[in-house]
Amino acid sequence: MSRIVLLSVLLATLIVVGTSAPAWAAQLDARINPNTETSPFKITYLKTVFIEYPNGGDLFDELQGKEWTVGGNADSSDPGVQELIEQLNRGIANDGSQAQVDDLNVTYDFHLKARNINTSIDYRVILEGTLTDYVITDDGQRTLVDLGWRALSTDKEIIINDVEINIPINILRDNEPEAYTYFAGTEAEEVLGKHLMDADFILEQPLTNWHFLFDPTGINVDAGTFGLDDEIAGFVISTWTMGESSIREGRQVEKVFEAEIMADQLYIVRSVQSTDSANLSTIGFGALDSLDGIEIVGVTPTPPDDYMTTSTGDFPVLIVYGMAGIAAIAGIAFFFVSSRSLKNEKQGQQGIDPNRLQGYETSDASGGYKTNRGEAQLKDDADYQQTRSHYDEPSSPPPQQSPPPQVTSSQDDAACGCAASVEMGSECDCEMQGACLCDGTCRCSADICKDQVNSMS
Asked: Band of the pLDDT at 413, cuts 50, 70, 90?
């Protein structure tokens, strides 16, 4: 029973984690080409802040009916973008990686909408740029690529176009100063002060836990007919994907931070940031490795001839076939044991010996028609208690049937010749013959008999 409960819990866990929310906090998408000096990447940061006022209050009056959007974009020529590039590269170096962000475009969008019970502020920042210095060595046969740059994060204030884009509370401070006074100096300020550009978990999740696939489309001779990019012609593509919430990859849950503010009314501030996801691709076949604690990948133009893998990267096909073989052996063993069990069972008649049964007629004639109905009963009742059906057993003994009454003649047949004639349907012969052998008990209706009876009386 305990094993059944454990399996049920595990199944429920798989179902729950398999249906987690599809919105992500940090979404990283990068394709690394080891044959070029730079490669593109894109990362999106998302967060939502809720300001709740269940009982109304002055904060509700201040935000009621308001809705606004602050957005914009900038490239590497903007001083704020240059500051962001510097901060990202400093964080990458602190993580031990040699790669660097070379170019960057920033797009930001903040949207506030007030409702009757709460106000929501949606934050979105998108970084699109290029990486460089990610190739560690290249000996002509295999290229070592640095993948330790994945945590593109900074906790510093980043001002672009006079808009601070990294600390959520700052946009509220700059656009709603009256509402900001309710949060200043409270626990809510700490919740709203957590930086938006945070992708540390993408680096903290080891690449060995990511799903791995490689696509050999590029080496097909007719790949160009499908509009395949010339950049990958002659190569395979290796892809690592992170973001699944499961027992193997780890339970991933959204990040929720909450604080209460007691002013004229109770106000609740909640920051919601979902789990991270990432897709990393390299041109060529990539094999994971580690160098001085930094995760790297060894890239070759084609996979090894003897390489077999599944999407997890560390689960050889040989093991899959082995598990299938074990299942087949278990099935054969099951059928063998079942066959042996059937052979050991008694064959033939297993019930009551027919020689101990006798027929008993249960139907009777009805006019000129008779049905042949009957039942079988034991000749003796020695084993009746073992063979009888307890379901047919009456709850109380049936009443004893009295024998049918004996039919007695209502008249005496003595010395009544007409009585015998009645049985033959010729009672009138007595009168036709002019004689009758009668006595006082005869009830013949013929006149000669009545006279004879009267004379005898």
From this structure: very low
Domain count, the chain: 2
Q: Residue 295's closest CA among 403, 120, 151?
A: 151
Show Cβ contacts of residue 272 under 8 Å, excluding neighbours closer than 6 positions.
47, 48, 49, 50, 254, 255, 256
Which pLDDT score is estimated for 403? 54
Residues 424 and 314 in one domain: no
Conformational region of residue 295, where left means phi above 0, alpha means psi within -120 to 50, and beta covers everything else: beta
The conformational region for residue 261 under phi > 0 = left, psi -120 to 50 = alpha, else beta, is: beta
Domain that holds residue 262: 19-327
Together in a domain, 185 and 287: yes
User: Considering the domain boundaries, does residue 435 fall inside one?
Assistant: yes
More confident residue, 174 or 22: 174
- Residues 323 and 449 grouped into a single domain: no
For residue 163, what are the contacts with CB-CB under 8 A and spacing of at least 6?
70, 72, 108, 171, 174
Mean of pLDDT over the chain: 77
Residue 281 maps to a domain:
yes
pLDDT of residue 436: 63
Listed residue (188, 214, 200, 120) closest to 153, CA to CA: 200
Return the pLDDT at 43: 96
Contact 24, 276 (CB under 8 A): yes
Same domain, 168 and 288: yes
Residue 357 forms part of a structural domain: no
Is the model more confident about 221 or about 56? 56
Are 450 and 320 members of one domain? no
Residue 370 tokens, joined: 């008779």
Q: Is residue 403 part of a domain?
A: no
